[in-house]
Every structure is written in C-alpha cells, then in structure tokens.
Write a structure and sequence with these properties.
Elements (H helix, E strand, L loop, with lengths): L1 E5 L3 E6 H6 L12 E4 L20 E2 L2 E3 L11 E6 L4 E4 L5 E4 L7 E7 L11 E2 L8 E3 L1 E8 L17 E2 L4 E7 L9 E9 L8 E6 L2 E6 L9 E9 L5 E9 L7 E13 L6 E5 L5 E10 L7 E4 L7 E3 L2 E3 L2 E8 L3 E5 L8 E5 L9
Parallel strand pairs: 10-24, 11-22
Antiparallel strand pairs: 1-9, 1-28, 2-6, 3-4, 3-9, 5-6, 7-8, 12-20, 13-20, 14-19, 15-18, 15-20, 16-17, 16-19, 21-27, 22-26, 23-24, 23-27, 25-26
C-alpha cells in the first residue's frame, strides 16, 4: 500500500513521476495492476450511530495509454478525489461547507496488485434519449473563505482568522467570471467578538461602496461570542470586493473573522482547467434536462461524480464550442476538464497493511 494526499476536490493524475516518488518500481508495471482506494468523506462523524463507509472503498479509474500492458512514460491513471472539507445542500437554493477541523488534507491509497480484478473503469453513459423539459445554461456557484489562524480558547475545533483591532476595516476580494447578474449573491459571514455590550458597536458589510447589511457585534459575558449574519447583493458583478468595517465601544474589544460563505449562480461557460458544477433546482426524476456549456475545449470531457466512488463519463454533443448533454432532473454533481489540466497528489510513501477489524 502507498499513501497519497490531496488538498481539494478534483481530477487527479497518477503518472510515472508520482509512482517513482512513492518508491514504486515502474519497470514492467501493468497499469491495470494499479488500484485506488479512498473514501473522501471528510472528518469522521462524532456520533457512533451516524452511518459512514467502513473500510476503504475502491475507486473507479481511467487508464490513459497502457494498452500494451506496460506503464510507459506517457501513460497515466485518472481518478476523482475529494478533499478534506465537504459541501452539502442547505435547503433548496444554497450550499454549506462542513470543514474538517483536524486535517487540511484528504488521503487516498494505491495498491499495486495483480491478484485483484482489473480496476473498475470510468464508463461512458449516454443520456441523450428523450425530449428535454427544461434547459440549464447556469449553475449554483459556491465559494468559501476561511483562514484558520488562532484558537480563541486555546483548543477545540473552531479556529478564527483575521483580527479587527488596529485595522478595523478589511476587504476580502472574490472573483467569479461570468457571474449570473440576474440572481442575487448571498453572503453568510460569521465573526466572533468579546464586546461586553452591543451599544455603540457595529459590523458593517459593503461591496463597491454600497452597504448591504449592518448589525451590532456579538456580545460575550466572558471570553468570545460568535454571530452569523446573512445578506444579499442584487445584480452582482464578477469582481466582489467585500468590505467589513468594525465599530467598537472600547479599545479592548477584539473581533475575529470566522468565515465568509458565498452562494450565487454562474453562467455555464468553461472555467479554468477543470471546474465542478451542479443545480439544486433539479427535483423531478421523470423529466430530462439539457445542459449547455459554452467555450468548451475540443479536448475536454465531462464526468458525473454523484457516485463518488464510481464517476461516469457523459456522452454529449459538441457543436462549435458549445457542449450539450442531457440527464434526468435530479441533483447531480459534475466536473468538466479540458483534458490536460489535472491535479497532482502529494506522495507520502509506503504503509504496512492493517487489519483494524482484527484488533
């Protein structure tokens, strides 16, 4: 077994360079003997009764090259890895992120074995049959800013970021290319303060000189208290300079940012080397919906990653630079890739086989 680490969600590439860094002898190695295991579930639940995946799950892979049974220099294996922090729907229009307080990495494992069956390949599916009842040209966009710098109580799971003390005004910049200007951008901001009274205090939030929300600082009879505020920005721009101003009634009042969560919509045009997208408004499994992605590269491809252990490659239609595909109208997670921009795992090294059930 060989351990690798990843920091974020995405399509990862296992090539000869990574295998060599792990100490794997690639001479004569058959790519079909490379097995990827990992659960990608973030931190374990605190309650024992909460369901979770027992043992390591094997992941489907896509082998590129290697038809001759030899792992040559240009051959590689692709898999989808989930980072340490997990997104989940919070209602019908927004997402929340459950942060892993114990690790900023997620771990997967490679097993080199000719005794196991050939790894499950990422199969192509064709959902183009049937007449679509609706069409999506935009998707639910989500982003979070959280900088874990300090624990206000000297321990525990919650860490905080930037301090508002000498600097009582800070600006946090977000860039969302091709943002859907017809849909409000929703903000959820959490901060902590040790203010003894709310009188004469304020936390103000503005974008491009327009104040969006204001309320008092959270009041703490001792130590710190945390508050969460929600507000929206109508007709958003692609560039979002969120300015936070803190007004305090005493120099001893300290305020810390916990995190900033954004929920909005972005037009469905290809972004970067790979990007994920989804629509929470999909609710009817009897209907067919059509997705249209503009600026799609000719070498690109699309995976459905709703089944996190078994992604599926989606067959679609590329006309010019617009890629159309169809699926049933249920909540799904997708990732589009340009066919060359893959993420690289961090090699950790060999680990001995473990039998936790035998303890």
């Amino acid at each position: 077994w060989y351990k690798i680490a990843i920091a974020t969600d995405g399509i990862y590439k296992i090539d000869k360079s990574l295998l060599n860094a792990l100490g794997i002898n690639t001479q004569g190695l058959n790519p079909n003997h490379i097995h990827v295991f990992g659960n990608g579930e973030g931190s374990l639940p605190e309650l024992n009764a909460t369901p979770y995946t027992d043992d390591l799950a094997q992941n489907s892979v896509q082998v590129v090259g290697g038809a001759d049974g030899i792992f040559d220099d240009g051959d590689y294996v692709l898999f989808y890895g989930f980072g340490p922090h997990k997104w989940y729907p919070n209602g019908s229009t927004e997402f929340e992120q459950r942060r892993n307080p114990y690790s900023d990495k997620s771990y997967y494992f490679l097993l080199i074995s000719k005794d196991l069956a050939t790894p499950q390949p990422i199969l192509e599916v064709d959902w183009s049959t049937g007449l679509e009842q609706s069409q999506f040209t935009s998707y639910d966009y989500r982003e979070v800013y959280e900088n874990d710098l300090i624990s206000l109580v000297g321990g525990g799971k919650r860490w905080y970021g930037e301090l508002f003390d000498i600097e009582l005004t800070r600006t946090f910049n977000f860039a969302i290319p091709s943002v859907d200007v017809t849909t409000p951008m929703k903000f959820r901001v959490s901060m902590a303060s040790n203010a003894l009274t709310g009188s004469g205090t304020a936390q103000k939030f503005s974008v491009a000189g327009t104040q969006l929300f204001q309320t008092t600082l959270p009041v703490a009879p001792y130590d710190y208290n945390r508050s969460v505020v929600n507000f929206s920005w109508n007709n958003p721009n692609s560039i979002i300079p969120l300015q936070i101003d803190v007004v305090r009634n005493s120099p001893s009042t300290l305020t810390y940012l916990d995190r900033i969560l954004l929920n909005g919509r972005r037009n469905l045009s290809f972004l970067g080397g790979q990007f994920g997208f989804r629509n929470l408004t999909q609710t009817d499994s009897t209907q067919v919906v059509k997705y249209s992605i503009s600026a799609f590269p000719s070498s690109g491809f699309l995976w459905d990653i709703s089944d996190k252990y078994n992604p599926k490659k989606i067959k679609g239609s590329l006309v010019g630079s617009t890629f159309d595909f169809w699926c049933t109208k249920v909540y799904r997670e997708f990732v589009a890739c340009n066919g060359s921009s893959y993420l690289t795992p961090t090699p950790i090294g060999a680990v001995s086989n473990q039998n936790l059930h035998g303890l």
